[in-house]
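Q: Focus on the shape:
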Amino acid sequence: MCLAIPVRVTELLPDQMAKVSLDGVSKTVSVALLDELSVGDYVILHVGFALSKIDPDEAERTLRMIRDIAGSAS
């Protein structure tokens, strides 16, 4: 099963690419599906593609739930 997760945009790159970060891990992803993206925006990431922008509060709530689930599984 694959999950789409919220990540924060840390840098906009050429060719419709961007660097995103989650818990200190950075990754270069495609943002070709999105318009008007800015550094600091949160996006939903799935298999290397930013699918949509997400409200920062919603992103933080979702990340908290994911961390809680991961913590209870260990």
Summary: The mean pLDDT is 94. The helical segments are 56-73. The beta strands are 5-13, 17-22, 25-30, 42-46, 49-54. The radius of gyration is 12 Å.
